[in-house]
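Input chain follows. Return structure tokens only.
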Amino acid sequence: MLLEIITPDKKVYSGEVNSVSVPGAAGRFQMLNGHAPIISTLLNGKVKIKDKEGIKEFDVKGGVVENLKNKVVILAESV
């Protein structure tokens, strides 16, 4: 699935990933390929992704995540 992490200043990450774990407002959750559509607000915390190179982490300061048709977009206040 495609992931984009975007802040008001720049695009922080764009690429194919196997999984994305985010600090949702109702608790941490993970999205995998084929995940049901979802929109959630994000709390401050770590976004963990797994891509072909391994596991990467980004510290986000709030925002919104949307997953639709295997495209995940994270709009973060800052990273």
